[in-house]
Amino acid sequence: MTKKVSIIGGSGYTGGELIRLLLFHPNVEIQQVTSQRYLGKFVHNAHPNLRGQRLIKFTSPDQIQPCDILFLALPHKTAARDIERYTTLAEHVIDLSADFRLRDAAVYKKWYGEDHAAPTWLDRFVYGLPELHREELASAKYISGVGCNATAVNLALYPLAKNQLIDHVVAEVKVGSSEGGNSYSLASHHPERSGAVRSFAPTTHRHQAEMQQELNISQIYFSATAIEMVRGVMCTAHCFLKDDIEEKEVWKLYRKEYKGEPFIRLVKDNTGIYRFPEPKILQGTNYCDIGFAKEKNSKRLVVISAIDNLMKGAAGSAVQSMNVMMGWEEKTALNFPGLHPI
Amino acid sequence: MTKKVSIIGGSGYTGGELIRLLLFHPNVEIQQVTSQRYLGKFVHNAHPNLRGQRLIKFTSPDQIQPCDILFLALPHKTAARDIERYTTLAEHVIDLSADFRLRDAAVYKKWYGEDHAAPTWLDRFVYGLPELHREELASAKYISGVGCNATAVNLALYPLAKNQLIDHVVAEVKVGSSEGGNSYSLASHHPERSGAVRSFAPTTHRHQAEMQQELNISQIYFSATAIEMVRGVMCTAHCFLKDDIEEKEVWKLYRKEYKGEPFIRLVKDNTGIYRFPEPKILQGTNYCDIGFAKEKNSKRLVVISAIDNLMKGAAGSAVQSMNVMMGWEEKTALNFPGLHPI
Amino acid sequence: MTKKVSIIGGSGYTGGELIRLLLFHPNVEIQQVTSQRYLGKFVHNAHPNLRGQRLIKFTSPDQIQPCDILFLALPHKTAARDIERYTTLAEHVIDLSADFRLRDAAVYKKWYGEDHAAPTWLDRFVYGLPELHREELASAKYISGVGCNATAVNLALYPLAKNQLIDHVVAEVKVGSSEGGNSYSLASHHPERSGAVRSFAPTTHRHQAEMQQELNISQIYFSATAIEMVRGVMCTAHCFLKDDIEEKEVWKLYRKEYKGEPFIRLVKDNTGIYRFPEPKILQGTNYCDIGFAKEKNSKRLVVISAIDNLMKGAAGSAVQSMNVMMGWEEKTALNFPGLHPI
Amino acid sequence: MTKKVSIIGGSGYTGGELIRLLLFHPNVEIQQVTSQRYLGKFVHNAHPNLRGQRLIKFTSPDQIQPCDILFLALPHKTAARDIERYTTLAEHVIDLSADFRLRDAAVYKKWYGEDHAAPTWLDRFVYGLPELHREELASAKYISGVGCNATAVNLALYPLAKNQLIDHVVAEVKVGSSEGGNSYSLASHHPERSGAVRSFAPTTHRHQAEMQQELNISQIYFSATAIEMVRGVMCTAHCFLKDDIEEKEVWKLYRKEYKGEPFIRLVKDNTGIYRFPEPKILQGTNYCDIGFAKEKNSKRLVVISAIDNLMKGAAGSAVQSMNVMMGWEEKTALNFPGLHPI
């Protein structure tokens, strides 16, 4: 029996991806999608790729009806404000904002600059990354989304962090312009943003809090650079290990920790062009590709990961987490393999 | 009961798209994929997006076994040479090269510069564009592929041409770099090709023969310009009509002629950014989007169409044609809606 | 003796190019540059490429002092409103907006939708394209700028139009995102504009008025498509000639009409990659490259031209026109040859 | 009195930049440019931006005549083989390959895999980076070129390294496709290279030898990622300092060490889009822009630098070094400020 899902805040890029995925999900039916900006317009007015699919009109957030699963794709700090109302509307709530990702209200305040609006709700949410929280998700009612940059870093480092092999690590991500959502500014104006290699967060990026929480390591140094790309995050993590480990041991470790993971692919070839993860062929997919290179006579291990920020870094992980929570086949609606060339 | 399909020449870009589509097609099973260059390697060595899907090794063309449907994704002039052999291997043959697109051997010679290698086979093939040949495809055994540029032009102009409304037309396509396949040269070297606006065929492009054949109009002037894009063809067709027709009549005509077409979308909005067809949101899809603008006080009607050259312009139309030929639901394996933003 | 020049409205893209050119012009000294938005800030805050050059602060338009040559780089309709004031400030005024390009106030009203604010000034301005108006410019006091798209078309067609060889012509331009200036919107937001092939003006573009005026032909059909490019205009003009002329006659004609022109290059090679004009290697230069291809057994001649819209299509032509007006060597400050690869 | 210069190997990208710069250099005259591939063709056949400049034909390397200054723009290992011959042809030789960059033949062998062909010549060459070797260059006869990646790193770190402030550093560069020269392959084929974020050297890049030599630090960890860009190198250097230094102290240090440098610009703004160095606005210029961000409560200092790899990273530094060697004004022929927008 199909479940009824609704989306609060469906006109943004993450909302658009959610709609795309849910339209083709056999176990759910989209009941309502809200948008204040596009009120009364069709979903394909905001998401032109959805033209010709099922006709859905954006409704007002005030008109939202009870449903089985409610997705929140709202700006940060908005979901927390009304979380009581949302949880009365649906048994299951999946919030894609940053509001319920951190478990510690003090950490939240440190990174987001103000008190959390609903601190008692923080521990009712499960962080929506099945690779790290599959069991909790299976019995969850409320799921938080994930930060896109955090996800690229967390999945790159998880096997090392879990086994406490890291002394310290410099994680540098290269990101596309869709990460900023659909709010435009001079910074996103095409003549300025095109061809940019912009150090927009050399230090002090909020996603660092999610990395520290999920990896439980403190010596993590993070930087983010925007490059010419629309979709995609690529992480280069320079890990300084406690000990000099051979490359084949690293292989074993990653194989073991990610065994059976439907969306993790280890990518490390000696020939060809795609020897390491490459975000461009992941566009539209839920994969996280991971590779690595060990520097000889050194404790540095370079781990490389790539995701689509709107998919594995947002809507894709959310749908995957929903599948886990609802007991559905985990890959449902997420089997698009990506395109090449692109 | 699933049908066995094999692909001769599966390491090129069109071959890669075919494999991607057929891997997810519920009515077929891929039996063999051949490649001389990648012999013995895995399909994902040529098509990195297919990593983690079913493991298939490229085999030699010599080892090809009988099957139900045989796809040929070979360089031009290669399929025709061995067509007798291929048709003994499979009841159904779908050739994606230019070898069997033209019905008239003399026209073939004019545009391809030499005698056709198998002229008696020309009229056993049906041109693989369901919008124009659905009935013949339903009873076909052999299907030719389509030219990507020709398809963008043909679908843009078909309603006008069928109704003999065109006096003469200038059709100009903007194309991406994947149109040239995966053979590299200085012309495709990234520092040279990047950002190019290259008039590679201001006159005298071979696809013109397919336009004249399918549209049955002679006064068609064609030019092609390569732009910064990997996938996609966008056609701007400046039609000088015999009479000055009002825009709403054009609407009616296109609606009528393309009624019920699963992959034609009329795109003509007065607001928003995506008012006319846009190839970027069609990447990976089988859609042909069509829009138009009528110039006031003039006989010029500008018709705009967009496709993904590797999909609707090649592998997508081939799979759609296969679906028609085999009596399967026409959209099977072709329902990817495309991505936005991208 | 150097002349004092000032620029009203120097924070836009055209203003930035003007400053760049004038900073290195040996015969002029920049006296003032105004900007309301960047008031009190340095020129390099708006134009980061000018960091480390002469330090200039933006001043208020109200504080503008008398000077020898005054450039106006203002939004359309603004220059005309205050033209009386500007002409008292400087003996020479060069206006880069569209306000004084058209000689006929009725034509202006038709295309710009309202009465001209200073119609008596229209015939005091000379259209700032030296290739067509060198003599008038030499004795001019007031110069209008040129439309970037109009310039690509006008220079492509001028030799044909002057000799009345054209029956009708379809001129299609492909343009970069800088053409829209630095005002941002969702349409220019990088995730939307990136990779676009956008038919933003399939019919009815204002620059058509400048083409008709300068070429004195009526049967000109114009369309504009935005592509993935920041700087550059490329025009493909499909000319239907009154008679079928051989290609070598076309050569002779263009050579004769453009003989000695310092910024016109004929580009028509049989080998290599750059056989026809290519806007990317013109970035930062004042060249207009022109090539052509004659269709056999047809009256169609395809003429291709390329310019940098901010240079030959705006600031470059303005400085070139200034050089002519002031009796200076015409190439002064305009000898940058462009980059390759780029 | 102008000096006669010739270029051996002038058809590559670095050779093209050299020609472009030398054509406009008032103190030199280009005598000969050699190319085996383009023998007998014009310089603009290889470098289309130079069309319309002085007509120069490529000659054979065998026909090279004595001159004042000889530039070698040859593949690695070729210059060293014939260095005896070249030094008899000209009093001054500037070699842009990697052959004479390293002073220690053993280090050369370690990184380039074979014995150096002319080890006795190694200490006759001066490393062609004026910021580090101005005095030696002033009295040099022979100058080596610089590695582009090494230059971005060396100039970023020099003030810190000189003052022995670095404990260890992770230097990560993002590079454009022109770094690989004009040799094409599937890896540089546009559909593959376009949009790539390719970890082509996560460890073990040869330029590391130049960094260690010039900075005299051993704890340097280097990685290189190719991104969507034609020209440009951007370095993000994560420096772990021996002590926690305040940001204003870093400012002072960089200001002091680079005082008076004509091509170093410190870029560190609190507002605007271009707060940190950005390679795109450096295209065609000889600038190295440097900025930094200090992480609070941490010993990490992130230093960011950007250059044009073909200019400051190759031909530009070579011409600047020539100017120093010849006693000419150091900025001669290098004053192009770059473009914006681009």
Largest β-sheet summary of chain A = 7 strands, parallel
What is the strand tally of chain A? Answer: 14
CA radius of gyration of chain A is: 20 Å
Mean pLDDT of chain A: 96
Order of helix and strand elements from N to C terminus of chain A: EHEHEEHHEHEHEHEHEHEEHEEEH
CATH class of the largest domain in chain A: Alpha Beta
- Rounded to the nearest angstrom, the distance between the terminal CA atoms of chain A is 38 Å
Content-based structural category of chain A: alpha/beta
What would CATH call the architecture of the largest domain in chain A? 2-Layer Sandwich
Could you characterize the architecture of this molecule?
Four copies of one chain form a homotetramer. Chain A is an alpha/beta fold and 342 residues long. The first copy, chain A, folds into two domains: 3-145 and 312-326, NAD(P)-binding Rossmann-like Domain (Rossmann fold, 3-Layer(aba) Sandwich), CATH 3.40.50.720; 148-308, 2-Layer Sandwich (Dihydrodipicolinate Reductase, domain 2). Helix content of chain A is 29%, strand content 24%. The first copy, chain A, has eleven helices and 14 strands. A seven-stranded parallel β-sheet of chain A has the order 3-2-1-4-5-7-6. In chain A, strand 6 (125-127), helix 6 (130-138) and strand 7 form a beta-alpha-beta unit. Chain A is globular. Chains B and C meet through strand 8, strand 10, strand 11, strand 13 and strand 14 of B and strand 8, strand 10, strand 11, strand 13 and strand 14 of C.
Annotation keywords:
homotetramer; 342 residues; alpha/beta; Rossmann fold; Dihydrodipicolinate Reductase, domain 2; 2 domains; seven-stranded parallel β-sheet; seven-stranded mixed β-sheet; 24% strand; globular
